[in-house]
Amino acid sequence: MRKLVAYLFLFLCVMMVGAQNNGVSNKKRSTPEVGVVFSGGGALGLAHIGAIKALEEAGIEPKYVAGTSMGAIIGVMYAAGYSADEIMEIVKDRRLYKVGHLMTWRSALRSNGMSSQKTLLRELSEFIPYNSFDSLERKFMVCVTNVETAEPVYRSKGDNLREFVAASASIPAVFESIVIDEVRYVDGGMMDNLPVKALRAEFGKPKMKVIAIDVLPFIENFEAKNFLDMAKWTLRVFQHKNAEPNRASADCLIDCWALKKYHEFDFKYYKEIYQYGYDAMKEKLQNIDKADF
Questions:
Q1: What's the whole-model pTM score?
Q2: What is the residue-wise DSSP string for 60-83?
Q3: Residue 151 burial class via C-beta count within 10 angstroms: exposed 0-12, middle 13-18, buried 19 and up
C-alpha cells in the first residue's frame, strides 16, 4: 500500500512539473512579433545586408519586412529567404556593385529618366522567379510613390512584385518611372523613406516590435564643397524630414553613418558599407534587451 501511495505521489509530481514546463513553453511562443524596416539610400542601403547578418547572429528572425528604394531591393531578397551571406554573394557575383552594370542608358530627351530598370528587373526575375508577394517566405511590404497623385502607395499582396520593387528604387530623372496597371510610380523615398508606421498598419500589427535601419540619418553642420554636395544635402534633408515620425515610432532605431564617408552612388565600396551596417546593428543589440525580440 505504501509503495502504491509513493508511486502515485511521484506520478503527481511529474505531472505538475510537466504542466509547469508547458507553461514556460507557451510563454516563449507568445513573444512579440518582430518587423524590420530598411530605409532607402542608394549604395548606402547595402549597409542593410550587414545589419541582417548581425540580426542572424543574435538569433532574431523578423516575420515582417518593409523597405523603400534600396531598402526594398535588400528587403525583398531577405523576405524571399536569402541570408546575408547569400545576398552579398549575389551582389559580388552579379557585379551589382558597378554603377555601369546597373544603368541602362537612354536618351534624356526621349524618356523621363536617364536609365531604365531593365537590369534590376532581370536580376530580380532570376533570383525571385515568382512575381508575387504572396509567395515570399516572410511578409513583405514595399513603398512606392504615385506620380499622378504624389502620394505614397504601400503594396504587400498580389502580383507585380518585381515591378513594385523596381519602382520603389526608381529615383526620379535618374531612372524611368515604372508603369503598373496604367499608373506611373517612382521612388518611394520621395514620400516615405522609412515606412515603420505603414508596416504596422499594412499587416494589422499595431503592437509589433519594429527594428528600423536608417542609412540617411541627419548630419549636422554638413559642409557642401560644391553643387553636387549641396544637391545631396538637399535630398537627404528632405528624406530625413519625412522619416522623422517613423524614426520616433520604431522600437529599435539603428542609425548607419556610412554616409559620413560614402555617398549614394558609391556602390564599389559595398564591402565597407556592409561593415557599417553590421557594426551599427551589433552595437545596438549589445545595449538592448534582446528578450523583447
A1: 0.85
A2: ---SEEEEETHHHHHHHHHHTT--
A3: exposed
